[in-house]
Amino acid sequence: MIDEQDIQRFLEDGAFTVDTPISTDRITAAAEALDRLLPQKDGRPRSGATCNYDDPALIDLIQDPFFEQVARHVLDSPAVYFFQTAIITAFPQPGVEFSFDQHVDTQYTLSDLDGSPRRLTCSFFLWLSDVAADQAPMMYRPGSHRPLAAHWETQTDLVDEIPRIIGIKLADLPDLNYAEPQPLLAKAGQVSVLTTGMVHGASVNTGDTPRKAMVITFHDVDVPVGLPEVQEVTKRKYDAMLRNILSPERRHIVRPS
Ligand SMILES: [Fe+2]
Fold it and tell me: Distance of CA 221 to CAs 4, 9, 80, 117, Å?
């Protein structure tokens, strides 16, 4: 499934990409669900949704044991809970020059990262289409989560607040020695397992086919991760819905109410 080298890449680079046991038919069904749920509106370059869908093709992926098992391994955790999910389509932008966003979505300390279990979320970016250099690859700065985690560790006023989900743009992050941005390339059906505590962001789709992805995140059952109030309310509603529709043998991945 994954090995120690993959774990080391997660810890050091912040991301690794592997094949999944998910069949082409299931990936295609999920990509078709995104076509239905995320039509392009007003020529906007991206369309997305978070924790508000129950399409069987997407629920089928959330509850696949692969993600739970890999999350346990990555987080060095005996048991994990589903945290959040999102779907995103990046549409082609013919003639637009390549550029990309840079931000982090979560804060944790080096002690959180190196602990057992690890006190952070494990994010799966499941690619529902190929991600070539001209298909809106995520751009990321390998290893940038580590100096940031060391920095957050020194911020004593954050002790009671983190780990937490919080969006911070590169311009508002401390000026540390980050690696240069790289594109994260993959094939449909592969998954990038990563921490959004590293500097990363969406790029322009300069090609001619939409890029589609599903994000699924997990955390250790005993490690609460703070969420902005609006996201917390949405997550609780979604957890309640999932408890009703997941297969009985898979419901344990959702925190009980
Ligand atoms: Fe992000």
Answer: 22, 23, 5, 10
Contact between 134 and 93 under an 8 Å Cβ cutoff? The reply is no
102 C-alpha to ligand 1 centroid (Å): 8
Domain 4-247 superfamily per CATH: q2cbj1_9rhob like domain (2.60.120.620)
pLDDT tens-place string over residues 235-253: 999 999 999 999 999 999 9
Peptide bond preceding 174 in cis form (omega within 30 of 0):
no
In whole angstroms, what is the distance from residue 24 CA to residue 144 CA? 33
Q: In this structure, which amino acid lies at residue 238?
A: Y
Closest to 35 measured CA to CA, from 91, 82, 102, 100: 91
Closest CA to 209 of 51, 90, 123, 71: 90
Cα 155 to averaged position of ligand 1 atoms, centre (Å): 22
DSSP 203: B
Q: Where are the domains of the chain?
A: 4-247
pTM: 0.98
